[in-house]
Amino acid sequence: MFETLSDRLTTVFSSLRSKGRLSEADINATAREIRVALLEADVALPVVKDFIARVKERARGAEVSQALNPAQQVVKIVNEELIEILGGETRRIRFAKNPPTVIMLAGLQGSGKTTLAGKLARWLKQEGHTPLLVAADLQRPNAVQQLQVVGERAGAAVFAPEPGNGVGDPVDVARRSLDHARHAQHDVVVIDTAGRLGVDAEMMRQAADIRDAVRPHEILFVVDAMIGQDAVTTAQAFLDGVGFDGVVLTKLDGDARGGAALSVRHVTGRPIMFASTGEKLEDFNVFHPDRMAGRILD
Ligand code: GDP
């Protein structure tokens, strides 16, 4: 991801290298090219507008520096503004003082929630926690079994409705899982919920009912970075319908242009907390805005 954007920005900056001092015309021309590069990368228009306005303002105000030539100064400003747009500081999970910490996953079907549950379990175990995965996606055929498979791979326990009891009520499963976690001394509960292929009122209602029943400490909105501009509209719909505390970007290993990653924080005001970069459990990282900005400007 970001290859085209990276290449475009490198070209923009290299045309500045020979300049002794940035004129107003240079700043405007550079801003225009950065704007095109961001729009081509599928970054949402309001995000692009804000970004460009800030870069221009800072480039105009930049002091003549002994240490940095004008091109380096622009790179520095763009880097800092990219970090800002990606959320600034790394936002970590807030663990509850009284366990279990309840983490609820929400997002469209296929966004990667069940896979993420396994990844989170593996990561939480590495961090010294004793996670319990909860199968509250009772909509999608095989979702329960899929969660059991990833739980087994991650070496984490899975709480699921007993087989043979019909479809079961996801709200009830989620509620009962908390009692189970307390008894079995799991300090973190990760609840996998049902998604649909598109935004749907019934899905939102069910997620909101689960939310109200278990009062999660963290609701993570899981979004496939490959869906481009749709990531922003979907995020907005989940923000209105369920609300969330943080975002997990999945499929960052794909050849998406990166717009979702660069837009979602700014548009929703919620931080990106984790990144998923493949199908395997270890393809997963805490999201660091500075490292992502570094990759874009590499
Ligand atoms: P859910 O419907 O939201 O639970 O989504 P799943 O966890 O079932 O994931 C949907 C598909 O995306 C599966 O085939 C996963 O293997 C795949 N997947 C999930 N995360 C990633 C990722 O980060 N990269 C890639 N390439 N595939 C992923």
TrEMBL record:
Residues 271-284 form the SRP54-type proteins GTP-binding domain. Keywords: Cytoplasm, GTP-binding, Hydrolase, Nucleotide-binding, Ribonucleoprotein, RNA-binding, Signal recognition particle. It is found in: Cytoplasm. GTP binds at residues 107-114, 192-196, 250-253. It comes from the Bacteria. Its EC number is 3.6.5.4. Its main location: cytoplasm. It catalyses: GTP + H2O = GDP + phosphate + H(+). GO terms for cellular component: signal recognition particle. One of its GO terms (molecular function) is 7S RNA binding. One of its GO terms (biological process) is SRP-dependent cotranslational protein targeting to membrane. Belongs to the GTP-binding SRP family. SRP54 subfamily. Involved in targeting and insertion of nascent membrane proteins into the cytoplasmic membrane. Binds to the hydrophobic signal sequence of the ribosome-nascent chain (RNC) as it emerges from the ribosomes. The SRP-RNC complex is then targeted to the cytoplasmic membrane where it interacts with the SRP receptor FtsY. Composed of three domains: the N-terminal N domain, which is responsible for interactions with the ribosome, the central G domain, which binds GTP, and the C-terminal M domain, which binds the RNA and the signal sequence of the RNC. Part of the signal recognition particle protein translocation system, which is composed of SRP and FtsY. This is Signal recognition particle protein. It comes from Actinomadura rubrobrunea. The lineage of its organism: Bacteria, Bacillati, Actinomycetota, Actinomycetes, Streptosporangiales. The chain holds residues 1 to 298 of 528 of the full protein.
